């Protein structure tokens, strides 16, 4: 799958940001749709097939809370789990990103979005979709293996995003567990669990690049 035939829905209530993102993606070869609210996003998703969604988490009527973005993620998980969502975080970016991952986001980007980061994240999403489609082609031959592989693939993508976020916040805070817990909205024991889960230590910060390179 190339950018040329990929379709992306940009969901942001700020027309300036939405327009800039749409122009960037169109120049890269994407076919772009735009929506300014949860209802518009769901309406577009019901009428048009898209490969990925670039989703602002804070939208009216609660611009300072991630509720509207989480509602879109929940809808996608229920009706279109194959669509990959990249969330944009503004206020409280770490805790918002963690919530979004738990609700099925494929990746997260902090505002203001860097064009090269957005395109790289979309490239990873499309590679993941391509891999999933290849598995589906074998559906009639290895049904059980397919189900397991697709389940593992979803888990892997979520783990990659979770690892990336936790590792990033640990590095930003010099492994201050109390501060990491505050930023992510977790208890300290949850942070210790995640550190153990991913084997995160000070010298392991380069793991994020290796995990991010996996399909």
UniProtKB/TrEMBL annotation:
Q: Which UniProt keywords apply?
A: Phosphoprotein
List this protein's GO terms for biological process.
phosphorelay signal transduction system
Domain Response regulatory, first and last residues per copy: 7-126
* TM stretches of this protein: none
Instruction: Name the InterPro entries for this protein.
Output: Bact_response_regulator, CheY-like_superfamily, Homeodomain-like_sf, HTH_Fis, Sig_transdc_resp-reg_receiver
Q: Name one Pfam family in it.
A: Response_reg
* Designated name of the protein: Response regulatory domain-containing protein
* Protein species of origin: Thiosulfativibrio zosterae
Instruction: Give the organism's phylogenetic lineage.
Output: Bacteria, Pseudomonadati, Pseudomonadota, Gammaproteobacteria, Thiotrichales
């Amino acid at each position: 799958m190339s950018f040329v035939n990929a379709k992306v829905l940009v969901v942001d209530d700020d027309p300036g940001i939405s327009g800039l993102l749409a122009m960037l993606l169109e120049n890269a070869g994407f076919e772009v749709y735009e929506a300014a609210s949860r209802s518009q996003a769901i309406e577009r998703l019901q009428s048009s097939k898209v490969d990925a969604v670039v989703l602002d988490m804070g939208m009216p009527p609660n611009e300072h809370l991630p509720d509207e973005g989480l509602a879109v993620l929940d809808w996608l998980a229920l009706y279109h789990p194959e669509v990959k969502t990249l969330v944009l975080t503004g206020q409280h970016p770490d805790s918002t990103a963690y919530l979004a991952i738990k609700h099925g986001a494929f990746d997260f980007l902090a505002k203001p979005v860097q064009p090269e980061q957005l395109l790289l994240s979309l490239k990873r999403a499309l590679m993941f979709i391509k891999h999933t489609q290849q598995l589906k082609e074998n559906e009639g031959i290895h049904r059980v293996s397919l189900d397991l592989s697709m389940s593992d693939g979803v888990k892997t993508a979520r783990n990659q995003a979770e690892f990336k976020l936790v590792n990033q916040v640990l590095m930003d805070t010099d492994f201050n567990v109390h501060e990491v817990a505050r930023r992510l909205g977790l208890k300290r024991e949850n942070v210790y669990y995640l550190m153990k889960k991913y084997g995160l230590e000070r010298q392991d910060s380069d793991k994020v690049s290796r995990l991010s390179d996996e399909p």
